[in-house]
Each structure stands twice: as structure tokens, then as C-alpha cells.
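User: Run a structure prediction on this.
Assistant: Running it now.
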Amino acid sequence: MVAADLDVTVDLARSLLEEQHPDLADRPLQLVANGWDNVMIRLGDDLALRLPRRELGAQLMRNEHQVLPLLAPRLPVAVPDPVRTGVPSPALGYPWPWGVVRWADGVAAATVPATERTPWAEHLARFFVALHQPATDDGRLSAVIDFGDVTSGDPASDLGTMWLTFDAEGRKRFRRVVDAEARDGRGWDTGMWRRAQGWALLYTTICFSYPDTHPIMVRVGEHAVEQLFSEGA
């Protein structure tokens, strides 16, 4: 686990709500996850708090708060666009922005056997088709989360998840949808998919970075290595 710059607790979350969103402060709170960048705390039945635990996570949170309200109406699945935002609290010693998002029921893909993920391939592909649209002049998945690293860049960095998430059949379905629908039906060239393999290899090395605290990511990495080598990457 990446060391936290600040210990984020349920008590701190409650105090932040009481200070900034008192109408939500009486809801039950349940710690769900301590991620690399953020702590996730469920808020009642339908909401969740995302609170940065380190400075880098705070910058990613600012990115999400800026872009997700613009992206959410254009995407075919739920994303964690904020329904409320929080600000740093000098009184409570919490120095970063934070947010309240809608709770998305579901399970992490990494906890599901690869062969059972195949039916999701077309849905995830269509999500990326929608995401990778050129900017306009003015500007059945449950959800896709963690948009802190969002930027204008190479779509291959997103498509690399194909090897981390799916088996050969799932990748076939995923690519078929992307090739048929991306860029108004023009799809992507071979170079895009080769770069996507390179991104997948990079992500795989990250998966092995914290085996003691994130063993499930090690399994994701092992799956990706197997899939990449099966294609001679």
C-alpha cells in the first residue's frame, strides 16, 4: 500500500459532513476501501464519500470534479460524478477537496473469473467508444470509476485494459465493437492496438507493486501476463 499522507477515518468523515453538509451527517457510514489515492466510505444506501488520503490523490480528485460533470451525460454507464463537493477544512486538519458520489452496486471485475467477464466486453467497448469522441466545438456495466488521471491523450491507454480484464473470447468481442463503432465506424488502426498492448504491459508491472496490501491486483497482473504472452506480445 502506498503510504498515506493523512489517516482518513470514519470519524473524520462524519466531522466533515457535519461541518459542510449537515443534512447528510446523520446517515450511517461504513468504510469500504482504502485505495492507493482515496478512501471510500459508504454513506447510507445510495451515496458514498471519496476522500483523498495523499496529496497526489487530491489533485486527481480535482480532475474528477472538473471533468466528470461534463462527461457523465455523454456516457452509457454510471460514473462517479459528484453530487456534492467538499472543501479543505483547516478546523479539522483536512487539507484537500473531497466529494460525495452516487453508490454503484456491483463487484470488482478482478473478483470474477475471466471467463465470466466475457459478456461485459461489448458494454465496456461501447463505453470507450463514447469516451473517445473528439471534443465538440463548445467544449451493461454498473459503473466505471477512478477518473483522476483523465486527460487528453492516447486512447490506447484505456484500451489496454482488454488484456487485464478479458480472455481471448472477451477480447475478440471487445475489439469487434471498438473497430465497428469508434470514430464514427472507422475504428482504430493496427498501431493503436499495438500501443494498447504496451500500455497493458505497463499496467501489469504496476499490479505487482504491492503484493502484501493488494493481492487481488497480483491476480490481475498474472492474468494479464498470461493473456499477453498467449498473443506473443
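The radius of gyration is 19 Å.
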